[in-house]
Amino acid sequence: MMELTIMVLIIIMAIIIMVNKEEKYKRLKMEVLEEIGFPSLSMISYFDEEVIVKSRQTLEKYDDIKFFKENREKLAKAERVLMRKNEIARIIRDFLRSNEFEKRFQYKRLVKELEKLLECAEAYRIYVKYISAAGNHLGDKVISLRQYNIDRFKNDPSLLMGKGEYNKYLKEQQKEVLDFRHHEYYENVNRIIDYANENRENLILKGSQEQLDKLVSQLFDRTVNSIKKIKAIDSEEWDIIGDLVTRIEGEIRKVVRKNQRILDYYKSPEFMKIKETCEVLMSNQREFNEYIIEKVESVSKLFGTKIIRNETINDDEYNYIRPYKKTITPFTADVSAAVFASAENKPLEYVVKQFYPNKEVYPEQIQKLYLLVEELETLKEAKQIIENYKKEYQQYLGDVPSYIMEEDEAGFYSRLGFANIDESVLAVEYKFAYTSGGGMAQRSFTVPMTDETIVQLIRVLEGKLTLSAIAKEQRNLMTKKLRDFIKNRDNFTCCYCKNSTHAEPNLLLEIDHIIPVSKGGKTEENNLQTLCWKCNRSKSDKIIV
Asked: Do residues 222 and 149 share a domain?
């Protein structure tokens, strides 16, 4: 009896010890779960999907491609599950690497459970079973997937496509690649246009802006339409266009660099020293230069000022190409092929049609043309006087770089304070331009406004006025012959201040209407007198006897 009692007590003690151990383990597990933030150690399963097949051949051939072909929607689910499992695996590994529970009782037991959970978390698993028609389990296999397996399907969707779907996918991919290449080339063109727009106003050398306009026009004409027409990604046209774009960009940058070199010199101490010297010497000529600048502006106003318009190709239907801002004179007419041909045969008649459409303002325009002839003749004489002044200043200019005088002589003297009478001011012209629908054919011609042409234009305009208007507007023209006659008659002497070219060789003499034209004065010998530019400037349109 005693032995039985002792046996029972031993069993009871063992049970108590076992229960205590289990309770301690439960507490350890709960503390660890709380530490790592897991609800339990069975939070994920070993298998994530289960598939039943009905033949051994199917079982042997079954793989991840077949699974996701049949279950496309589960690809995203598989990635989500893998992301969750990977995060669980990371947490477990970090915990097992070092933690405060390592010396606790039954820690090793807990490690085994964690390692089992880690094994579950290492892959997305598909369990494939072969079940016969009779319901017998005759074979199985496990397909384990990692993130790189999922990425393979994401990066190459064609793996999960049928033949028809794959062909459609290929066409879409080719179109996408071709569109990307188109836009890549368009952006190259846009980058050059942006660069041209940003630097256009800094081009100070004569002809630079026109050169830039021409290069950008080539860029439009020879690239944009060509890019659009390429239908194959492996076409040789890409290299041809790429080389052309690179060449034109290089030429544009060369134009900008050339101008920047000049601008850098004008900011240099060397130029500032020359400018300071000339400002002192030029004090007596400053008023003359200002007067000539006024004359230049007067001619510009008679023929209008320059305007800005956006230039881009007309058939860029998707607006891929940004506009290029180009300066043009207002006396450029874009006309049809028929009008262009007629204008070549009868230029002055079409100058009137295109640029003088309002008959009501003919009297005012005729008066401007009369004034234009006089102003242009004055500027021609002033230009020679300015050239004489420049020669006198040579001894004060010091060592000016040769490239400055070769490339920007007019700009150099203009910055020193000399009036600049550009040849373009003295050579006013009307322009007719024709561009074909596709932009490939371009033609143009100009009608220069020489003294003779201006006289002819005046006669054409007067011929379109009524008899009474003609009688009112008709007057003699201030020809060079008449100007020379009046100066000689007055002994090349100003009729007011009595200064003359005999005393001052560089004196600018002008022919003045005693009774101004605006007040009914005629261009006749008895209404004309010689005045120096200072007296003429102060007289303006007043009648002084």
From this structure: no
Positions of the chain with pLDDT lower than 70, given as ranges: 1-2, 4, 6, 8-9, 14, 16-17, 19, 284, 300, 302-322, 324-330, 423-427, 437-441, 466-476, 540-545
Instruction: State the pairing for strand pair 49-53/332-334.
Output: unpaired
Is 12 part of a structural domain of the chain? no
| 337 and 439, same domain (yes or no) | yes
Residue 146 makes CB contacts below 8 A (sequence gap 6+) with 82, 123, 124
Instruction: Write the pLDDT tens digit of every residue in 135-151.
Output: 899 999 999 999 999 99
> CB of 355 within 8 A of CB of 331?
yes
The model's pTM: 0.59
Instruction: Name the residue with tokens 């439960």.
Output: 26
Evaluate whether 185 touches 237 at the Cβ level (below 8 Å).
Answer: no
Say if residue 43 is in the same domain as residue 90: yes
With vertex at residue 368, the alpha carbon angle to CA 364 and CA 372, rounded to the nearest 5 degrees, is 170
For residue 307, being part of any structural domain is answered with yes
Q: In this structure, is residue 165 part of a structural domain? A: no
In a domain, 212, yes or no: yes
Distance CA 360, CA 112 (A): 106
Q: Is 224 exposed, middle or buried (0-12, 13-18, 19+ CB in 10 A)?
A: buried
b (16+ CB within 10 A) / e for 79-97:
bebbeebbebbebbeebee
Q: Are residues 442 and 498 in the same domain?
A: no
Structural domains in the chain (count): 4
Name residues whose C-beta falls within 8 Å of residue 538's C-beta, 6 or more positions apart in sequence: none
Question: 307 in helix, strand or coil?
Answer: strand
C-alpha span between 442 and 440 (Å, rounded): 7
Q: Are 321 and 224 in contact (CB under 8 A)?
A: yes
- Residues linked to residue 509 through DSSP beta bridges, in sequence order: 532
